[in-house]
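SEQUENCE-TO-STRUCTURE ENTRY
===========================
Question of interest: how does this chain fold, as expressed in backbone structure tokens?
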Amino acid sequence: MNRYTWRTGILETLMIGVGALFAFPLYILLNISLRPSNDPASPIEFTTNLTFEHYVDAWTRAGLGGALVNSLIVTVLSIALIIVFSSLAAYAITRATTRWSAVAFWTLLVGLLLPFQIAMIPLYFTIRDLGLLGNLGSLIIFYVGGQMPFSVFLYSGFLRAMPTDYEEAAWIDGASVMRAFWRVVFPLLRPITGTVIILNAITIWNDLLTPLLYLSGSGNLTIPVAIMGFVDQYVSNWPLIFAGLIIGVAPVLIVFFALQKTVIKGFASGLKG
């Protein structure tokens, strides 16, 4: 058993300080959003006269309910398709022994190097020609294509470290390649799947530029777009603005805290490989 030394104490104190530093802005958001608008106290001073009226007003005035539903639809469907396509692509690439698998892998990784701005205008014209402007489907198509390279990279690293014994046993028992993948291999990908979920969820949920580009002028809004308009409209009412920000960030925080152990395990397993 390792002994608790003074170096361990210093390291723990340092980590607690870093954690408090990152948690401080969230404390300010919560503290101001829960206090009355006419409260003159300092933002740092803890509010004892709590009120939830700002959350009610933010929900009703900014239309955050509809925006939240739209963001959930886009995020959930995009991540589901990313997981299916990326895991299958990574499985084919890592298990194939032909030269094309390496070519396919490095071709996909090129997508990590190319910035979105290069293809922004051609993609916009393509979405327009397909008649998908103002439709949530345009965002789903964009996110699935844009996040595939990174997700395939994560799955490939994990699969390379995974032995083939279980799937080979399934093949001997008569299972097809697809059946062996979904019944044997995919359940073993749970750690890296959690990592793919949380990283893509943060990226998709917080994206502002793409919804502005593809949904502009329509009634469909995502959370970042709705909050941006909300801030412009109520720029002097900080408790109301902060309540809207808390509503927008809460789903991502809940998913992250629920999957944080899986995320760490997935990264560790991928790096080990």
Observations:
- DSSP finds twelve helices and no strands in the chain.
- Residues 1-51 form one domain.
- The mean pLDDT is 83.
